[in-house]
Write a structure and sequence with these properties.
Chains A, B: InterPro entries: ATPase_NBD, HTH_MarR-typ, ROK, WH-like_DNA-bd_sf, WH_DNA-bd_sf. Two copies of one chain form a homodimer. The first copy, chain A, is an alpha/beta fold. Helices cover 42% and strands 19% of the residues of chain A. Chain A has twelve helices and 15 strands.
């Protein structure tokens, strides 16, 4: 039996600081009175909480005044001058790093080619650490303190930040968090490692066009197919942190061999590498430039090349099968096609929708809308930033 | 964007009342000092909270003393004399009603044959209301106030308590909650309707041998196959309340026709009615006594009848396929085989485990243990009781 958590008055304060920050994130610039009205907190409490947030340089007053009726009120905005979060995405496409200040302003976004696919994990970890170090330096040179560094990986990440398996990277049991902390010299900010699907879901939940959706799944397939799940308003993690591993659900019994050794996995028939291999086989020489091959694929699809559109139609059906499983099990209100699936959405959406409707037991697919991500290839990096900012918005405030 | 919830001091009190009640539920009899030590609350707070709970007749002092060393302390136990919760299970096996007092003592447990399978829903609703009314009368005659009535249904239940579809009962769009409230004459206690899988999961989470497990799935298949999901410590509901509908995941493309009209659904190959139809076909005359057929099936399995053990082996493999999907998507630490699957577990467990290990992408099936429920056919009714008691333990206390 687990012990039920108790609460004290500092929890109340953290909860209410979080409410004020979230309100400002959605509505700034606004007055203390507007915050009180919007959050249901009384004005004296809001004044005290805002004072605290100003002291911590997370909020600042602005001279700007609200409309021109009545007495001008001093307005509040988020202050991004003191803190920033860093997110880093590791995929077969390369490394992407992004940093946003605590007000949501972008400080940097860089892309680097990854070491060759057959490079040892240690080489990749060194490349990740080098890129992270450069981003940290840039953030600090801007006068900001680093709130956190989160790294997204296309694979199983255990709760201690180790990568159990990332088939697309050829990784097994890489102690990424521990190695990174060492490579960065025990930094004062938290270092986190998370699954790319989970981070994509956080990006959609915080910044996407359907931000705040309570039941949302983000599906990505650039390396291995993975889903990030937000259910009843919270990101799901599961017993060991492995929620959302849909890539190895069997969709074609006896189908093509998958990287995992099984047959007919969703990943083997509908992952982006599998699609590219079917449409533009590259022989024995692995071509690292996935981007160029994808570009060519889209060009041919736009020209209605039947060899391409037929494959995309089939892939859409298989993805629809996989999404139908997610819909039956998790009843999301929204499924977001992320990564390169977003690019291919014009050809995938129709067959996905057809399968989804046929295979969902709930009428109208349980109210599920399927949509394409608007983040392009940066969703994971943005979600990684969001993870550190989510800690902030949950009331875990930094000290200056 | 949703507004983040704020907290006030009454939330703190509700949270702490809940912590004291939960501690007592697990550890009573115990002293105020033990509660303070176990919950981390200070003694003055515990004294005040316990006073409140005694006033509401949820806790009482007892003359019993703790061991014989030192000064005797007055001990506290849960008081079940003032309140009780009622749970009612509707399935193809019949109607089961249970009532437990707020201290967890059983007041009644009755089983009734259901109206014939082809009876109109209205007739079934009348039977449910009649049985509920009798249980309410019995609880009230014992001097207790009813905390809530929860009804479990093997089907899709929308958040407003309507049954969207329950194929095994032949129901479509039955406004069960509204109809029951009317039939019971607008009762003063809350009436809730929930999916049987969800309630089975609550029963395991509160009373099962692995009570308190944070990531648990309860699988039942007596009418339609359904799963109740507890993930990260919370029951999942989803966008419209349809989480856990695994019965119509396709396991055999082009397989046998399912009640839903699709082919090869898990329910059509591994549901209890499908198993019975394969092993002991009953011709054109539907036999309402599922219990007797199941008993005969077990007798033959125990006698190693190869016609039966071969079918159970196949069914176990298919269930393993379905459970592997749940494990890949939700990473549970525990899957509980409920209802009649628990009875058949000696024959199903081996093949389930084999498929699960082969099909899970996480090593060692993500740490998942598969076990049989110990509740027998009463899991849903017990879970329905637990749902009302969970409200109590969440700090929503009744007034006398």
């Amino acid at each position: 039996m687990t012990t039920t958590q108790t609460a004290d008055h500092s929890d109340v304060r953290a909860t209410n600081l979080a409410a004020v920050l979230s309100y400002l994130r959605a509505n700034a610039p606004c007055s203390r009175a507007a915050i009180a009205a919007g959050t249901g907190l009384n004005k004296a409490t809001v004044t005290s909480l805002v004072g605290d947030l100003i002291d911590r340089r997370l909020v600042r007053e602005t001279q700007q005044t609200q409309n021109h009726v009545g007495r001008p009120a001093t307005l509040l905005v988020l202050d991004g001058s003191a803190f920033a979060a860093i997110g880093l995405d590791v995929s077969a496409r390369g490394l992407t790093v992004a940093a946003f200040d605590s007000a949501g302003g972008q400080l940097l976004r860089w892309h680097r080619a990854a070491p060759a696919a057959d490079a040892a994990p240690a080489k990749m970890v060194a490349a990740i650490a080098a890129l992270a170090r450069r981003a940290v330096t840039t953030v600090r040179n801007s006068g900001r303190q680093v709130l956190g560094l989160t790294v997204g990986i296309p694979g199983l990440v255990s709760t201690d930040g180790s990568v159990v398996v990332a088939a697309g990277l050829g990784w097994h049991d890489v102690r990424l968090k521990a190695d990174l902390i060492q490579a960065l010299g025990n930094p004062p900010y938290p270092v986190m490692v998370d699954n790319d699907g989970n981070l994509g879901a956080l990006a959609e939940h915080r910044y996407g066009p359907h931000a705040g959706a309570e039941d949302l799944i983000h599906l990505t397939g650039d390396t291995g197919i993975g889903a990030g799940v937000i259910c009843d308003g919270r990101p799901l993690r599961g017993h060991l942190g492995y929620v959302g591993e849909v890539g190895h659900i069997q969709v074609i019994p006896g189908g093509p061999v998958c990287g995992c050794g099984r047959r007919g996995c969703l990943e083997a028939v509908a992952g982006i590498p599998a699609i590219l291999d079917r449409v533009s086989p590259i022989g024995d020489e692995p071509d690292p430039d996935m981007e160029a091959r994808l570009h060519e694929l889209v060009r041919r699809a736009e020209a209605d090349d039947p060899d391409v559109t037929k494959v995309l139609q089939e892939v859409g059906s298989h993805l629809g099968q996989g999404i139908a499983v997610l819909v039956n099990v998790l009843n999301p209100g929204l499924v977001v096609l992320g990564g390169s699936y977003a690019t291919l959405a014009p050809w995938l959406a129709g067959p996905i929708d057809k399968e989804l409707r046929e295979r969902s037991i709930a009428p109208d697919a349980g109210g599920c809308l399927v949509t394409a991500s608007t983040f392009g290839p940066d969703a994971t990096a943005i979600g990684a930033v969001a993870r550190s900012l989510d800690r902030l918005d949950a009331g875990r405030l930094p000290t200056l």
